């Protein structure tokens, strides 16, 4: 494979169990990874993992009377369990407590320091533990972080190391100008450009080890540990073996990043400035997705509105959940999740739509002893184009339009009334070939379903089978 493709999600904090909002991000990334591997035949590195340092995690471990590493090990395993539950194809699972990541992060720090972008100063700031971010008054709502209204802001006053973010206003704007598709959707790109144009403030990148010991040691200063955001962002290249594995890094970097809108600043400005400081290439592209909401509210453990994706997949099936996340959640904007709509979609589009068409054609072919087909599938022309814009919903809508068309053709032609055996065989093989094309184009989205259909229709004889999606009562 000459062409190579690298995609990564953000790393979720291990301070809570996986919820359906993060399942959205990892399934979106998986669809892109599968497209490039199975349809475009590229060599793919797909990165996922866990963010395990910082005050939020340290405090949670303390509250439970546990060692922070033991706590992280338990929760990292829960996120890795998503691989089976959601049928994910990620190749790398990185943890920010991995020794290789720690060494890479310290090497990255040294490069930024050598470039004159790390310095020490005394400062006082308002700090949101929930975001693990400093907050200015303009970012607050009634004196509180709008993303964590139930949490009190803390006042930090200490000597920290700072990153010279202000130095990179012009370089970032020049980079954005040269790469007009760097951030998708365009609205989010405009948002970050406006943020950078307003001026950048240097930010703290360390914490006193005596107050918060759970982090990576600052090179040359054992009294400080690195700020969690500085540490975590470097996973995107440490997972590729940087700095030791120069070949893999060169082959796959820069890559595509998938991130939620609450990560806009970190992924598209802070991380890019850090890369410039270290003398490394910027990311290739960042896709910023919206949130899944429940009853119009962002998913939050404190609100009690979390939905466990593993439980949903176990009840309805992995591909049913994957379909809903990719087809019915707007990739650019927030979308509300309800089980009522989920079940309506399941019955209407999976059981009655795709499932009914496959069962119908398979039974007709079985009755006529039609042999399995060995045909070259045809790629839907909207597939790569639609996913280039991260419009998973539009691509799947187009595939389901084709399902309706094929269903309509069968109803209109009424093959069960055709008496000419040769003509009937020709029509049934055409239907079967269309089914196989659908399965081929579904590979990135519903891999298990696509595989079942291909086995059923490739033979040795086409036969009927259990429903792909048993109808819900």
Describe this structure in words.
With 473 residues, this protein is an alpha/beta fold. It has a domain at 339-458: Isoleucyl-tRNA Synthetase, Domain 1. The protein has 18 helices and 16 strands. Strands 3-2-1-12-13-7 form a six-stranded parallel β-sheet, sandwiched between helices. Helix 14 crosses helix 16 (392-413) and helix 16 (392-413) runs antiparallel to helix 17 (421-442). The two termini are 47 Å apart.
In summary, what is this structure?
With 473 residues, this protein is an alpha/beta fold. It has helices at 20-39, 55-63, 68-80, 82-85, 99-114, 169-178, 186-197, 228-233, 235-238, 246-252, 264-278, 309-316, 318-327, 339-367, 381-388, 392-413, 421-442, 447-458; strands spanning 4-9, 43-50, 92-95, 118-128, 133-135, 154-163, 183-184, 203-204, 206-208, 217-218, 221-226, 256-260, 285-289, 292-294, 297-298, 335-336.
